[in-house]
Amino acid sequence: MENNFVVVAISISGKSKIIVFLIKFYILFFFLFFILNYFGEYIVEIVAYLSYIFVKLIIPNAKIINNIIYLPNANVEIIKECTGSFITSGILFLIILYSKNSKEFIIGLFFLLLAFFVNIFRIVLVCYFVNLHPKNPIFYHDIVGYIIILSLIPILVLGYLKVIDIIRGKECSI
Fold it and tell me: Catalytic one among 82, 127, 168, 172?
């Protein structure tokens, strides 16, 4: 009987650590999200220009003015919500809370950079499909966005956690 109580106490302790981690994560996440969202107006031109550079590789006659990418068959406006501040906030605070040293933090920043370019890739694909099918741009925006973000971002997060577990010398818990 005593062994059962020990297992329960360890299990409750593990759950409380997870709950504390999640509380810290969400508080810090929203704090950074509001900061990044505030500066979104300035980030939007950077995201638009980087997206344009890659769009230009697949649609050579594309042009950009401010934050609007002009395609032969359609125009795509990059707005503040396109900057990926929501994803950036989440991944950044996962890195801050999960990293135990500067090496792990720097590795996390590499994964954050990859997530940034996943967002750029999403915008490029949206431009490509909207140019091919200009009559239904919202459909392609939503479908491409959900497929890219909901598949590649979790892969990046799991990849980061796996790399950190390998560095720490643990068996991967994912």
Answer: 82
Q: Encode pLDDT of 131-161 as tens digits.
A: 988 888 888 888 888 888 888 888 988 999 8
Q: Is 127 a catalytic residue?
A: no
Q: Write the single-letter amino acid at 122.
A: R
Active-site entry in 122, 127, 168, 172 = 122
Residues 6+ apart with CB under 8 A from 163: 107, 111
The candidate with the shortest Cα–Cα distance to 97, out of 22, 11, 165, 14, is 22
pLDDT digits (tens, 9 = 90+) for 18-66: 788 778 777 877 787 787 777 777 888 899 999 999 999 999 999 999 8
Active site residue 122: yes
Which residues are within 8 A (CB) of 19 and not within 5 positions of it... i.e. 6 or more apart?
Answer: none
Domain range summary for the chain, segments of one domain joined by +: 30-167
Q: Which residues contact 43 (CB under 8 A, 6 or more apart)?
A: 36, 80, 83, 85
